[in-house]
Amino acid sequence: MDSNGFDDDAGRTALTRQSQAYEGLRSLLLSGSIEPGTRLTEADLTRMFSVSRSTMRTVLVRLAQEGYVTSEVNRGVRTRSFSVEEAADILEARETLESALAGKAAERATEEEILGLRRTLEAMEDCKARGDATGYSQGNRRFHQQVKEAAHQQTLARAYDTLLYPLVMRQYRNLSAPHPRAGSLEEHQAILWAIITRNPQAATAAMSHHVSSARQALLLHVRRERTAG
């Protein structure tokens, strides 16, 4: 207890629970397991994360400020959905940031980090050969995470982490398209080779091409759906 009569341990415990609830709900949203526009009730969330309503309310306010959920009068809190224009902006920002991170990874990756990238790509090659789309997707996410970490550039990494790209993909992914996308594996191979050869310009260009190709494929699907509708 401090000189003002407050229980420091209780305060720290409350902050820890709030942080855990925030990280837990944020991870759940980013996992894509909740449909866009789904209403989130405080009662359900407090039970899920074993926190008080006031704590969960604080968490939801923070998530709304960061763009993960929306809060409207008479509609409550809902998972975020994006207009096509918003989605395009986020995907364009992802391309810029990931390209810069790949360039830095070519300069700064350790031999251990490069070995990790090699192993991930080998696993992705194996998944593609076996037709394991889920395993390939998991490897793809791991590869991009490893590139970000190998860049050793915290400012770029923080900016990248604020992007709501996983939520955009959850809303707009073309589930009828073959997976992985044609050329995806070869694009990852080009990124890795540029990092191995310590060529930041090539790594930046390879990542830009990879992310741009994915972005164009997604937006082409959206435009086709609009035309058909």
From TrEMBL:
<dbReference type="Pfam" id="PF00392">
    <property type="entry name" value="GntR"/>
</dbReference>
<dbReference type="InterPro" id="IPR036390">
    <property type="entry name" value="WH_DNA-bd_sf"/>
</dbReference>
<protein>
    <submittedName>
        <fullName>GntR family transcriptional regulator</fullName>
    </submittedName>
</protein>
<keyword id="KW-0238">DNA-binding</keyword>
<dbReference type="GO" id="GO:0003700">
    <property type="term" value="F:DNA-binding transcription factor activity"/>
</dbReference>
<dbReference type="Pfam" id="PF07729">
    <property type="entry name" value="FCD"/>
</dbReference>
<feature type="domain" description="HTH gntR-type">
    <location>
        <begin position="15"/>
        <end position="82"/>
    </location>
</feature>
<dbReference type="GO" id="GO:0003677">
    <property type="term" value="F:DNA binding"/>
</dbReference>
<keyword id="KW-0804">Transcription</keyword>
<dbReference type="InterPro" id="IPR000524">
    <property type="entry name" value="Tscrpt_reg_HTH_GntR"/>
</dbReference>
<dbReference type="InterPro" id="IPR008920">
    <property type="entry name" value="TF_FadR/GntR_C"/>
</dbReference>
<keyword id="KW-0805">Transcription regulation</keyword>
<dbReference type="InterPro" id="IPR011711">
    <property type="entry name" value="GntR_C"/>
</dbReference>
<dbReference type="InterPro" id="IPR036388">
    <property type="entry name" value="WH-like_DNA-bd_sf"/>
</dbReference>
